[in-house]
Design a protein that fits this description.
The complex is a heterodimer of chains A (about 400) and B (about 300). Chain A is of the alpha/beta class and about 400 residues long. Chain A has helices at about 5-25, 40-60, 80-90, 105-115, 150-155, 170-185, 205-215, 225-235, 255-260, 260-265, 280-295, 300-320, 325-335; strands spanning about 25-35, 70-75, 100, 120-125, 135-140, 160-170, 190-195, 220, 245-250, 270, 335-340, 345, 355, 360, 370-375. Chain A has a seven-stranded mixed beta sheet, sandwiched between helices. A five-stranded parallel beta sheet of chain A has the order 2-1-3-4-5, sandwiched between helices. In chain A, strands 11-12-13 form a three-stranded antiparallel beta sheet, with no helix packed on it. Classes of the chains: A alpha/beta (about 400), B mainly alpha (about 300).
Chain lengths: ~400, ~300
């Protein structure tokens, strides 16, 4: 290689480096606010990881509008007042363009006034009970009509007419079951019984006695967290199985299946907008990238897929708006459509997603096989027409 | 009321009682002797659960024969370590012990999180425990007794029996009772009270570890599982009369039945609140519990 060519190569690469630095001169901050400690850390750490993965991928391809994304990671510590103060800090001190975070409805309700007051933008990735519609929140998890009601439809289509509702005792299961009960009676089916156990509760023998006395054909399960482990252990010990009394769960995904022990869950059902086993190309890329970074046996769940996609959704909206301003991004995001790991999704005017609903059946390895899906995509409906007539999003 | 449901609830009461008893026995033992309120007691249950998990990973479905000695010895050793490093240095300072053991409980929870992850680990009961006895025909047609529940009831009876024998029939038990009644005199008569404290604390921790094996068959094994049982275990100890093993047993059975019956008539989420109201009322009537320990050591507190 001649000296001249060496020199020109060197200067070219120098120019490239300088050029890149000049382009990345500006950065843009976003917040990831999840419980990294405390009781919810089980679920939320991996959701934060998924959002971080999307940021890394986007940065590796040059960032957003030529700017690298800088993540400010905060710990909500499973404590709702902490979510409020951390959200306030992210918006006023770090001046982030958007925040990705929250899991429980309590954490979302704690953050909502902060985002409204400071005109921020929150991407919330988890299924929830509806009944809420803030212009400052993009609700990408399932609305009740995108998880609970399709699950009911599926149960009815299987001939299950007598339904037992079991949940943890807090806002999400109570509201979801309120909506479900209206629809069960409306469809001429029967509520065999309804029971709630304190969050984290581990003793289910009374509940199982009540279930036995009520003789339902199916259980719709909105228990959250580790109570599911106790429930399925004791349900099996009482002689039940998926064949004798099937359970449809809304909070058991691949990660929870691992903790429960796949053997206990074999044959049981779950409804979500995403399963790790979805065969689309975007999902295969996502699963491979996540497992490359966080371990080859890492389980991937619906809220993780939503969180990952939320970052891409925000990027698309920023590029459409040509601005990082939350108000402009909120306006631009409506109508954006993309092929994501969840399949085709579109943002509806109310800031939620139009997405597909899948029913999966748990297999031996803790993965769910998709056995049913909604006819096409389902538009989000924050307020259920039967349970909350006359209420709509502004 | 439907007889099947009623008998089902009575069985539930017994089953809840057996778990409460296993969780509370060690607590009653260490409080009676040393007046130590051990906030880390729940974490010994957790340790027992994790050791059960390890046994099941090593041995597959027939892990129980290893799980019991492993959980007992593992928790007992950890208990002995805690006694030597922390509790021994805080004798006669109940509030400091309470705070220190609370700190230890948080450390143990975090250690479990580091070692096993914050998601729980799966423990599947062996095949012969998976089934249930079902009554066929007659008025009680359909009444079910899950094997695993019967197993845990049997386990708690065995532990209770063993404990009774140890305390009332062995030389070690005589020393324990002597120290319980009057530490100074027992010491003057040649009982090595420091060594006894260590043994009793280790024994109480080991029993909690055995309880952890039972729990692993019924409940999740995760870093916070001990915390879920500690409140009810304290309830048993207070209602039974602090320091009384017999009182603990009677209180566990009583609380188990009260829980099961209120759960049967009301909702499960309401039952815990009703139980606490009843306990408060009971303590107004009998502030020192069902079987108050007559001991000079306790009078002094």
């Amino acid at each position: 290689m001649t000296t001249l060519r060496k020199f020109s190569l060197a200067s070219l690469s120098l120019a490239l480096i300088l050029g890149n630095t000049a382009g990345a001169q500006g950065t843009v901050k976003v917040g990831i606010l999840h419980s990294l400690t405390g009781t919810m850390a089980i679920s939320e750490i991996t959701v934060a990881n998924a959002a971080q993965l999307a940021v890394d991928e986007i940065n590796a391809k040059g960032g957003v509008l030529g700017r690298k994304i800088v993540v400010v990671k905060e710990d909500g510590a499973s404590d709702w007042p902490t979510f409020t103060t951390k959200a306030e800090k992210l918006l006023t001190q770090d001046r982030v363009a958007a925040v990705f975070g929250g899991w429980t409805s309590a954490s979302r309700k704690a953050m909502l006034p902060v985002f409204e007051k400071n005109k921020g933008l929150l991407f919330y990735p988890v299924q929830f009970e509806g009944n809420e519609c803030s212009p400052n929140i993009i609700y990408t998890g399932a609305q009740p009509n995108q998880q609970a009601l399709p699950a009911l439809e599926w149960a009815l289509s299987q001939g299950y007419q007598n339904i037992f509702l079991l949940g943890s005792d807090y806002v999400y299961p109570r509201t979801a079951n309120l909506i479900l009960k209206k629809h069960i009676t409306d469809r001429g089916a029967k509520v065999a019984g309804e029971e709630y156990v304190a969050l984290g509760g581990t003793e289910f023998s009374s509940v199982i006695n009540k279930i036995k006395a009520a003789r339902p054909q199916v259980i719709i399960n909105t228990l959250n967290g580790d109570s599911n482990v106790s429930f399925f252990k004791q349900y099996q010990a009482a002689g039940y199985s998926a064949a004798t009394l099937p359970v449809i769960s809304f909070s058991i995904a691949e990660q929870e299946a691992q903790a429960i022990g796949p053997a206990l869950l074999t044959g049981q059902y779950a409804t979500w907008n995403y399963f790790q086993s979805l065969p689309n190309a975007a999902n295969k890329r996502f699963v491979a990238a996540y497992q490359k970074k966080y371990g080859k046996n890492a389980a991937i769940t619906d809220p993780m897929a939503h969180a990952y996609m939320d970052v891409y959704l925000w990027k698309a909206a920023v590029e459409k708006a040509k601005s990082f301003d939350p108000a402009a991004v909120r306006k631009a995001i409506v109508g954006i459509s993309m092929d994501s790991p969840l399949g085709k999704i579109t943002v509806a005017p109310n800031g939620s997603l139009t997405q597909t609903v899948y029913t999966g059946q748990s297999g031996a390895g803790g993965q769910f096989k998709v056995i049913g899906q909604s006819k096409g995509v389902v538009a989000p409906q924050p307020y259920d027409k039967l349970a909350f007539p006359g209420k709509t999003c502004p | 009321m439907d007889p099947v449901f009623l008998f089902g609830q009575l069985f539930t009461g017994l089953s809840v009682a057996s778990i409460l008893l296993l969780a509370a026995l060690g607590l009653a033992l260490s409080f009676g002797l040393m007046r130590v309120i051990n906030m880390a007691h729940g974490e010994f249950l957790m340790v027992g659960g994790y050791l059960t998990y390890l046994a099941s990973q090593w041995l597959g479905p027939d892990f129980l024969w290893l799980a019991f000695p492993l959980a007992f010895l593992g928790s007992a050793l950890l208990g002995a370590l805690l006694e030597v490093t922390v509790i021994r240095r805080l004798y006669g300072r109940p509030l400091d012990t309470l705070l220190a053991t609370f700190g230890v409980s948080l450390i143990l929870q975090q250690a479990a999180r580091q070692l096993f992850g914050s998601t729980g680990v799966p423990v599947t009961a062996p095949g012969w425990l998976a089934g249930a006895f079902v009554v066929h025909g007659g008025a009680l047609d359909g009444l079910t007794f899950p094997h695993v529940r019967l197993f845990v009831i049997g386990l708690s009876l065995l532990v209770l029996g063993g404990m009774w024998w140890l305390l009332n029939r062995s030389r070690f038990g005589m020393h324990v009772r002597a120290v319980n009644q009057n530490r100074e005199v027992a010491s003057a008569l040649g009982v090595n009270t420091r060594r006894l404290d260590l043994l009793v604390f280790a024994l109480g921790s080991g029993v909690a570890g055995v309880a952890g094996v039972g729990l692993a068959l019924l409940a999740p094994v995760n870093p916070t599982v001990g915390a879920a049982y500690i409140v009810n275990a304290f309830l048993v100890v207070v209602v039974g009369g602090v320091g009384s093993v017999l009182g603990g047993a009677v209180a566990a059975v009583g609380l188990g039945f009260v829980t099961a019956l209120t759960e049967g008539f009301t909702s499960v989420s309401l039952a815990q609140a009703i139980l606490l109201v009843l306990v408060v009322a009971f303590l107004q009537w009998k502030p020192r519990g069902l079987f108050p320990t007559r001991s000079r050591a306790l009078e002094e507190t």
